[in-house]
Design goal:
By secondary structure, the protein is of the alpha/beta class. The protein has two domains: about 1-85 and about 120-199, Phosphoglycerate mutase-like (Rossmann fold), CATH 3.40.50.1240; about 90-120, no CATH class. The chain has helices at about 15, 30-45, 55-70, 95-100, 100-110, 120-135, 150-160; strands at about 1-10, 50-55, 75, 145-150, 180-185, 190-199. It has a six-stranded mixed β-sheet. The chain is globular. The mean pLDDT is about 95. InterPro entries: His_Pase_superF_clade-1, His_PPase_superfam, PG/BPGM_mutase_AS, PGM_Phosphatase.
């Protein structure tokens, strides 16, 4: 059975400051670099056969930590980027609460946001699903695919792959930096959630 590991990037300075990143291209902090280097050997123990990554620097750099210990080639795919948060990007949560109180409150509840240029949930889920399905379809049946990506993007992809209503996405909880969600695809039963927030 195929194992798909959705691996969130290491910490950035913006993560530490509770600043909204979205598709703003921020680098890993020193803490984030250490997190990536610490988690790469644990992922190596899963015997990965395919490595794909978002092309944003924080995810690409995280993926390179696994390249360094595995020798696997990495394929960068912009469809694995984080959800775009439009005008919110660069603002702290406190600032966004002050400037967009109603829509930011909806986001915090896991609801759709229809202003400030925030990308629709369905758009994120569709592009993530397409990229991941393409990787799975191009791999061997028992492949172990690691996708270095982002927190919200990974959550929506998980829900889409499992066939759950998107309203259940918040119940997964936030994926922590350099933690992962494991999904396994059974030939008969389809995708199954094996683990979430694995260190």
């Amino acid at each position: 059975m195929t194992l798909l590991v959705l691996w969130r990037h290491g910490q950035t300075e913006w993560n530490a400051a509770h600043r909204i990143q979205g598709q703003t291209d921020t680098p890993l902090s020193a803490v984030g670099m250490a997190q990536a280097m610490e988690s790469a050997p644990r992922l190596l123990a899963l015997k990965p056969t395919v490595l794909i990554a978002s092309d944003l620097t924080r995810a690409a750099t995280t993926a390179r930590a696994l390249v360094d210990v595995s020798g696997l080639p990495v394929t960068y795919d912009p469809r694995l980027r984080e959800r775009s948060f439009g005008e919110w990007e660069g603002h702290t949560h406190a600032e966004a609460t002050e400037r967009w109180p109603e829509s930011f409150a909806r986001w915090r509840r896991g609801e759709e946001v229809d202003d400030a240029g925030v990308e629709e949930i369905d758009s994120v889920a569709k592009r993530m699903h397409a990229a991941l399905q393409e990787a799975v379809d191009g791999a061997e049946p028992d492949a172990v695919i690691v996708a270095a990506t982002h927190g919200a993007a990974a959550r929506f992809a998980t829900v889409r792959l499992l066939g759950w209503p998107m309203a259940l996405a918040p119940t997964l909880g936030a994926l922590r930096n350099c933690h992962a969600t494991h999904l396994r695809r059974d030939p008969l039963r389809g995708w199954m959630l094996e683990a979430h927030n694995v260190a």
